[in-house]
Design brief:
By secondary structure, this protein is α+β, with helices and mostly antiparallel strands. It folds into three domains: 3-19 and 442-547, Immunoglobulin-like; 72-438, Alpha/alpha barrel (Glycosyltransferase), CATH 1.50.10.10; 552-666, no CATH class.
């Protein structure tokens, strides 16, 4: 559904526009990427210059405050329930005490899996984000106490990995393919950067710098030619470069990227598709292997490319993006079809009940999509970000904040349930660092002078944002009930009157959107790359009204997706819906929709934390109810299904040219 708008050249402040529905649904043609950097509080003493090869930068999440009925309670739950829950499990499973043992603060052997250090670092990162937005002395003390143990565990030369220190001393860097040393180092660095920016304390950052310097002394063009089987350190090193201004960290990240798929430089060694090591990154065009590792890698590639402008890396990101969104992404924004190797499948291989869709994969896809959106300023990436966050990510955490999905299938016989923790705990610890960072995804800004400086609104969430636009501070206040309602009221309050561009993302699911400024229409507005552009002199109190119609849509999949032939998914706004047995009197896999279902919506504030449900009748007259996919498995166990049979569905034509570039589209 590509939305096209006519050009806007009207003076001052009376604007309305109507948008036409011909923007492709989940179609992605433009090559781009970007740097993603969550800026918390404070800055580094020698921070790097911003990357030159991106169009926008993110507004720090500390400058955006949510005040809505949807996300605000989730941020509170993350702070009050999920973070303490994760700290508790890291303690009881030995993850935290491993550092005390390695630092000789207590006796004992290593406990758990060799990459368990990473979970502690991720929880510390999430706690730092939370601390920056909501000061909490008790949480700060918890962090400080853990950091004492981490600092003690660091070896004199900077090395820090409790598994090798305790379980295999003397064997560090001997199994780069499997043992996740650099992966753990990456999460350490990310946690340390977040903590420093949140608190101004250097305790954790100094540990990270010392460890990164050790890694730099081991690996490099004139040193050891190696890399990690589980990617992550690449993006982390760029964050450390941004914080310290030390070029060597950016160079080391680029070195690790150059080593991947370069078996000649590594003595003929290749780890294959599982680790995205089958080809040099610059030659890759198809998304393969472990989904989470891939997304972390390509986020790091995007970061490096945003500084270097390497055209081969840019082209590779473009090919890989198109391969994912046109052939390998679920309607929920989940990725990774196969349980085997937690991997992408072949093109159009998107089974439902056996879908893997790891929560970490959805989170890391959001990181990559955000980077691409920043670099190119194209709404197609924010469209995928929104779809993934509201569906594929949010389904991974229970409403109570203490139960989690590792795997997120699109159909269930009733035996798949959230759990409080996992022996491999990457998903719970990833959730608690991602959720409190969400305010940093709402606004982006460009201070370019030609065209004029611009503010982009990427997500619609009630609350306030403070945006620094050159020498002008602009406060934006959103009032909305999104995602339950598509009415958005945006008040613009620049510190001083001035001309700039306000860009409003028109979601790919929406047709017939309307915009008004100060209550008056604009007949010829301007839309580029999925954003409605309002370029004008802005004064305090100017008000923008955005109307995003939210009809109930039946979505059909590309005919080559065998699992969904003759089926449709139900979507309203950014939310994908599902049918659960508890709402439908029993089995739901036998639901058949009539050719023209008469769906209606009903908001139920008492249900599942407050949700809008969709009700109607099946072909056989049975009353049916659908709830948002993210909210399933909170009540009585039973069947669940996203894709239901559609009466009168035409025999699929895989050669139909109208499907070119699309994986999903609304059923006409």
């Amino acid at each position: 559904m590509r939305l096209t708008l006519l050009s806007y050249k009207q003076p001052h402040h009376h604007i309305l526009m109507r948008i036409n529905p011909n923007r492709n649904f989940l179609t992605h043609q433009t090559t781009c990427w970007c740097l993603f950097a969550i800026v918390l509080i404070g800055g580094a003493t020698a921070s790097a210059e911003g990357p030159k090869f991106r169009k926008f930068s993110a507004v720090p999440f500390t400058e955006v405050k949510f005040q809505d009925v949807f996300w605000t309670p989730r941020l509170v739950t993350n702070r009050e329930k999920s973070l303490p829950h994760n700290f508790e499990w890291c303690e009881k499973t030995g993850r935290i005490s491993n550092f005390a043992k390695a630092g000789k603060l207590m006796e004992g052997k290593f406990e758990g899996i060799f990459f368990n250090d990473s979970d502690v670092f991720k929880v510390l990162e999430g706690a730092s984000y939370s601390l920056a937005a909501h000061p909490d002395p008790a949480m700060e003390k918890t962090i400080d106490d853990i950091l004492v143990k981490i600092a003690a565990a660091q070896q004199p030369d900077g090395y820090l990995n409790t598994y090798y220190t305790l379980a295999e001393p003397g064997k560090r860097w001997t199994n780069l393919k499997d043992k996740h040393e650099l992966y753990c180092a990456g999460h350490l660095i990310e946690g340390a950067v977040a903590h420093y920016r949140a608190t101004g304390k250097r305790t954790f950052l100094d540990v990270a710098i010392k460890y990164a310097d050790h890694i730099d002394s081991v690996f490099g063009p004139t040193k050891r030619h190696g890399l990690c089987g589980c990617e992550e350190v690449e993006l982390a090193l760029v964050k450390l470069y941004q914080t310290t201004g030390q070029q060597k960290y950016l160079d080391l990240s680029r070195f690790f990227i150059d080593m991947r798929g370069n078996k000649d430089a590594r003595g003929g060694e290749s780890w294959g598709e599982y680790c995205q090591d089958h080809q040099p990154v610059r030659e890759q065009k198809e998304m393969v292997g472990h989904a989470v590792r891939a997304m972390y890698l390509y986020s790091g590639v995007a970061d490096v490319a945003s500084y270097t402008g390497d055209p081969q890396l840019i082209n590779a990101m473009g090919h890989l993006w198109q391969d994912v969104v046109q052939k390998k992404i679920y309607i929920t924004g989940g990725i990774g079809a196969r349980h085997a190797h937690e991997a992408f499948g072949d093109a159009y291989e998107l089974p439902n009940e056996s879908a893997y869709c790891e929560t970490c994969a959805a989170i890391s896809l959001a990181l990559w999509a955000h980077r691409l959106n920043l670099m190119h300023g194209d709404a197609q990436y924010a469209d995928v970000l929104e779809r993934t966050v509201y569906n594929g990510v949010l389904s991974g955490i229970g409403l109570d904040g203490k139960l989690f999905f590792y795997v997120n299938p699109l159909a269930s016989s009733g035996k798949h349930h959230r759990k409080p923790f996992f022996s491999c705990a990457c998903c719970p610890s990833n959730v608690v660092r991602f959720v409190p960072s969400l305010p940093g995804y709402v606004y982006t800004v460009s201070e370019a002078t030609n065209p004029p400086a611009a503010i982009c609104v990427n997500l619609y969430v009630a609350g306030k944002g403070k945006v620094q636009l050159g020498d002008n501070a602009v406060t934006l206040t959103q009032e909305t009930k999104y995602p339950w309602d598509g009415e958005v009221k945006l008040t613009v309050e620049p510190q001083k009157a001035g001309e700039f561009t306000l860009q409003l993302r028109i979601p790919d699911w929406c047709s017939g959107a309307q915009v008004a400024v100060n209550g008056t229409a604009v007949s010829q507005p301007d839309v580029r790359n999925g954003y409605a552009r309002l370029s004008r002199p802005w004064r305090a109190g100017d008000m923008v009204q955005l109307t995003l119609p939210m009809p109930i849509q039946r979505i059909e999949a590309h005919p080559r997706v065998q699992a969904n032939v003759g089926r449709v998914a139900v979507q309203r706004g950014p939310l994908v819906y599902c049918f659960e047995a508890v709402d439908n009197g029993g089995p739901v896999k036998n639901i058949i929709l009539p050719q023209d279902p008469k769906f209606v919506t009903e908001h139920r504030p008492e249900l599942l934390g407050g949700v809008t449900v969709i009700t109607g009748e099946a072909k056989d007259g049975r009353k049916i109810t659908a709830v948002p996919y993210y909210a399933w498995d909170h009540r009585a166990a039973g069947e669940m299904i996203v894709w239901v049979e559609q009466d009168g569905a035409a025999k699929p034509d895989v050669e139909d040219p109208s499907w070119k570039g699309k994986l999903y589209r609304p059923r006409k």
